[in-house]
């Protein structure tokens, strides 16, 4: 057995997904176990504040990076205990870090996390900074997981669209006979979570209950869907730099709408941008959803309704493919860590627009 651990904390900033994967059989990845370590409300506020300009950012980012390492180490140790393993059983921990800025148009992306500290706290080699190599080659640095999706979810017969709904939603298109591609689609949970916290003091709209009780404001939705991001052709990526409270306030008086109408409109924006965003591919197929958004029953209902009207065969979750939808991205980062340790490039050119495949990541060795 050759074990790797993948760590993923996405733009929803709800928690760290921690996944144990085995690469013993010719490097073919096998999911073993997973757990989630939730961020505290204080952690969420600290990370969220860094996604927009503010005072004393360097100091705050340094403190937040240490906090990420401490909590990530807790997650790793909990996963080891769950599986009766020790640090010496793990080849490497692959850590995404916490994205606070993503600006490939300016040549950089920033995922904080004191990964030297994480290596010291766990006693395991840590691989991190997976996006920078792709951006250095002219790519978007996102989405990162389509190559992994192709390896474990591709089909020789069926066209499959893997939709990850985290803070931001993205698609991997697995079309037989064509190169794998993928791109960001728009807001996933980020706007809905923002409104749930602001209007109902809740971390999310569980099952989309409040959204389902509201009415979509079509004028606001039309204005939001007119953003240039949705009209841009792939490759493209985005983040909280665009989809935040300022985005919602573009519609005059949005904050005066009934709370459930605000959530219904934000939910419909996510569903509509996913359904419309697949049109660039010129293919119909089976849609499989993963990430935190797959637990929002009303959102899934809206995506399914829109997708079927556009000619897709079905819209369901990756559970139908035998994969836990909560841990697919953590599993993907374990795979990216394996690829780095083996010095195997990840071909992202058809996804991100980079000029060449790249060995993605940087190594933080465990203390001697």
Characterise this structure:
Helices cover 37% and strands 21% of the residues. The protein is of the alpha/beta class and 368 residues long. It has two domains: 3-140 and 329-364, 2-Layer Sandwich (Nucleotidyltransferase, domain 5); 146-321, Nucleotidyltransferase, domain 5 (2-Layer Sandwich), CATH 3.30.420.40. Strand 2 and strand 3 form a beta hairpin. It is globular.
Task: Please render the helix and strand layout as text.
Blueprint: E1 3-9, E2 15-22, E3 30-38, H1 41-49, H2 57-82, E4 90-103, E5 108-112, H3 115-122, E6 126-128, H4 132-136, H5 146-153, E7 160-165, E8 168-174, E9 181-187, H6 190-200, H7 209-212, H8 218-225, H9 228-231, H10 245-248, H11 259-277, E10 286-290, H12 297-309, E11 314-317, H13 328-341, H14 349-352, E12 362-364
Parallel strand pairs: 1-4, 4-6, 7-10, 10-11
Antiparallel strand pairs: 1-2, 2-3, 4-5, 6-12, 7-8, 8-9
- CATH architecture of the largest domain, by name, is 2-Layer Sandwich
Q: Uncertain regions: pLDDT < 50 for 5+ in a row?
A: none
Taking the sheet with the most strands, its summary is: 7 strands, mixed
What is the CATH homologous superfamily assignment of the largest domain?
A: ATPase, nucleotide binding domain
CATH class of the largest domain: Alpha Beta
The mean pLDDT is 95
Question: What attributes does this structure have?
Answer:
Nucleotidyltransferase, domain 5, 37% helix, alpha/beta, 14 helices, 2 domains, 21% strand, 368 residues
Brief synopsis:
It contains 14 helices and twelve strands. The protein is α/β, with parallel strands linked by helices. The strands form two sheets. Strands 1, 2, 3, 4, 5, 6 and 12 form a seven-stranded mixed sheet that branches. Strands 9-8-7-10-11 form a five-stranded mixed sheet, sandwiched between helices.
């Amino acid at each position: 057995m050759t074990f790797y651990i993948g760590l993923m904390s996405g733009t929803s900033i709800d928690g760290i997904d921690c996944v144990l994967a085995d690469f013993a059989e010719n490097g073919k990845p096998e999911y073993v176990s997973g757990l989630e370590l939730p961020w505290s409300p204080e952690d969420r506020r600290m990370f969220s504040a860094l996604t927009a300009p503010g005072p004393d950012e360097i100091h705050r980012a340094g403190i937040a990076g240490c906090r990420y390492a401490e909590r990530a180490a807790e997650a790793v140790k909990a996963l080891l205990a769950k599986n009766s393993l020790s640090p010496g059983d793990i080849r490497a921990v692959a850590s995404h870090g916490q994205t606070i800025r993503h600006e490939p148009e300016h040549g950089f992306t920033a995922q904080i996390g004191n990964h030297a500290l994480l290596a010291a706290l766990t006693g395991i080699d840590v691989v991190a900074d997976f996006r920078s190599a792709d951006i250095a080659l002219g790519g978007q640095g996102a989405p990162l997981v389509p190559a992994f999706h192709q390896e474990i979810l591709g089909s020789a017969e069926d066209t499959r669209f893997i939709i990850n709904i985290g803070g931001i939603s993205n698609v991997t298109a697995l079309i037989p006979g064509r190169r794998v591609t993928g791109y960001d689609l728009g807001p996933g949970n980020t706007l809905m979570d923002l409104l749930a916290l602001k209007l109902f003091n809740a971390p999310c709209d569980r099952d989309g209950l409040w959204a389902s009780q509201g009415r979509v404001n079509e004028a606001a939705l039309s204005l939001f869907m007119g953003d240039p991001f949705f009209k841009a052709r792939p490759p493209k990526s985005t983040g909280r730099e665009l989809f935040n409270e300022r985005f919602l306030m573009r519609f005059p008086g949005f904050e005066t709408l009934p709370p459930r109408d605000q959530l219904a409109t934000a939910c419909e924006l996510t569903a509509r941008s996913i359904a419309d965003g697949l049109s660039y591919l010129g293919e119909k197929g089976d849609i499989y959803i993963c990430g935190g958004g797959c637990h929002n029953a009303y959102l899934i209902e809206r995506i399914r309704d829109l997708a079927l009207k556009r000619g897709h065969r079905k819209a369901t979750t990756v559970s139908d493919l035998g994969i836990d939808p909560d841990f697919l991205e953590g599993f993907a980062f374990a795979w990216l860590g394996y690829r780095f340790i083996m010095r195997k490039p990840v071909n992202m050119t058809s996804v991100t627009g980079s000029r060449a495949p790249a060995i993605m990541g940087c190594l933080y060795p465990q203390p001697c």
